[in-house]
Amino acid sequence: MGLLGMFTGQGKVVRLFEEAAEALRKDKWRKGDLIALPAQGDLILTGDIHGNLDNYEEIVARAALDKNPQRHLVLHELIHDFCNRGRDFSYEILQEASELKIAHPDQVHILLGNHELAELEGSPIKKDGRLIPLVFSESRMKALGGSGGEIQAAAKKFLAALPVALKTPSNVWFSHSTSAKAMNQFSLGLLEKAGSGSSNSVISRGDAVVRTEVVKDLVWGRDHNPTSAAAFARKVGCDVLVVGHEFAVDGLLAPNRNHLILDSTRENACILHLKLDQKYTHRQLLERVQYLKPTAEFPEAKLKALKLAILQKLYPAAPAKPA
């Protein structure tokens, strides 16, 4: 049996991706390519997962969405294993994430990352000197057997429907990264009215060209300069910018007083849990970052020491007492 046999039927896989794409487009909180959450409930933010099925399933278990109907979960950068774990679980994770979106259409928010964009564009990414194969390339689908082209087309519908960013009423922003080269072109309004994936898309041809560059920059950009970060925060009307996209050897980075960078790829995966009716400062959210699953090698004390070091660097005049 080929890998696709795990999906118990190619037709089921096609329908799954198509139904998940529809759920993405009809998300109750979606406006264009932006998810604007309400001031009720709570939110779990994650970092890049990159094919780590164990971490993905731990995140879903931790969220316990069935028992918490007002809880929201953000997922992004699910695909492309580059940690040499011996097997790429991108197929399984995309299937499980699709099922999760269908089951909880207004609680689960899967955002576009640069690896998902690479799949859409058919452009393999080179990482650490090696080329990462596309998950849904025609040659790979054929090698797995069956109607690979239909699965590839359905998967691209799903990926094309992914929103780009999320904003809370308490002024917390989340996207895979933040704008760098296209900062001058970026506007919140462009995201709110744009998007090939959203059901309420109204955008001019000229705006579409700008939007393409803006979206690419939002998933590929790596400008963590404090001045740039503060400028982007003002543009989106948020105090804190939570992103992924970076390799964080400790699971967490805070390069300035606006950004928090989460990495959920490895054993020291970090997540951020916050209440949607409460306003937070950058420092307060930094203190709320948690290990997904503390271990003997990565106990909570280790993360506490890391947060203390970050606080002392960013806020030297204030006493640092992380929770």
Shape: globular
According to CATH, what is the class? Alpha Beta
CATH fold-type name: Purple Acid Phosphatase, chain A, domain 2
The CATH H-level superfamily is Metallo-dependent phosphatases
SSE inventory with pairings:
Elements: H1 10-25, E1 30-31, E2 34-36, E3 42-46, H2 53-63, E4 71-76, H3 90-103, E5 108-111, H4 114-121, E6 125-127, E7 130-132, H5 138-144, H6 148-160, E8 165-167, E9 172-175, H7 188-193, H8 205-220, H9 226-236, E10 240-243, E11 252-253, E12 259-262, E13 270-275, H10 282-288, E14 289-291, H11 300-314
Parallel strand pairs: 2-8, 3-4, 4-5, 9-10, 10-12
Antiparallel strand pairs: 1-2, 3-13, 6-7, 8-9, 11-12, 13-14
Helix pairs in contact: 1-3, 1-6, 5-6
Explain what you see:
The structure is a single chain. The protein has 323 residues and is an alpha/beta fold. The chain has one domain: Metallo-dependent phosphatases (Purple Acid Phosphatase, chain A, domain 2, 4-Layer Sandwich). Helix content is 38%, strand content 16%. The chain has eleven helices and 14 strands. The protein has a seven-stranded mixed sheet with strand order 1-2-8-9-10-12-11, sandwiched between helices. α1 crosses α3. The longest helix is centred in the first third of the chain and has 16 residues. The radius of gyration is 19 Å and the shape is globular. It starts with 9 loop residues before the first helix and ends in a 9-residue tail after the last helix. The N terminus is likely disordered.
